Amino acid sequence: MSLTSIDAHSSHILDNPAWAALTGPHARFAERHGRAARYQQDVAPFHALCDEDDPRAWADLAALIGPGGTAAVRSVTEAAAGWEVVSTGHGVQLVDTSLRAEHDPGAVRLGPDDVPEILDLVARTEPGPYLPRTVELGAYLGIRYQGRLIALAGERLHPPGWTEISAVCTDPAHRGRGLATRLVRAVAAGIRERGERPFLHAAATNANAIRLYESIGFTLRRHTAFSLVQHTGAAALEETA
């Protein structure tokens, strides 16, 4: 697998996309305390700090989740006082550089009534976390065969000017037919029509997915990591100005 990194600099909005989304286009889904925020718990499992090096942000996160609470944040090598790193995962972030985006007449818009089928497909294919209200984050498209949902893709994180394509999955019995590519192109078409640029994430170990995304016009921007952290302090630190 050959990857070429682009645009990798520390000040880019995609370096902290959850924070940019929660304090921007997705503010209506946010629970926020000062310098920390998270998605409503039935929408998405992500938390964000404005700056992982700022002790005040960690104090705000502690106040947000409470003693003993856990949070999924950008990776930290050493958590702040009163916190423990439970686990760390690694991934890649890719951005659209030459994707051919196009609407697909065979794709249908999915909504709240489709959530049970979506959750069933996600459980069987494991594309990443998907909760009962994730469908509200943006346009989710599916392909059906004989009335049954067999493939899915949609919009998740939404930093200003960008939209993440996520939950890309296909029923194992229907793989190899290009359904994922069709849906990624279709979701991207809607993103482009808003004047925004698609991006996505994949597990660093998912070589097949990364290869597919590269082949259709995505380019690696950066390697990513996230940490599951637990608040071990008895109470949140008092915020200082």
UniProtKB/TrEMBL annotation:
Pfam families (UniProt xref): FR47
Stored Gene3D superfamilies: 3.40.630.30
InterPro entries, A to Z: Acyl_CoA_acyltransferase, GCN5-like_dom, GNAT_dom, YpeA/RimI_acetyltransf
Superkingdom of the source species: Bacteria
PROSITE patterns (UniProt xref): GNAT
Acyltransferase among keywords: yes
Keyword Zinc-finger: no
Domain N-acetyltransferase positions: 105-241
Assigned keywords, A-Z: Acyltransferase, Transferase
Protein name per Swiss-Prot or TrEMBL: GNAT family N-acetyltransferase
Lineage summary: Bacteria, Bacillati, Actinomycetota, Actinomycetes, Kitasatosporales
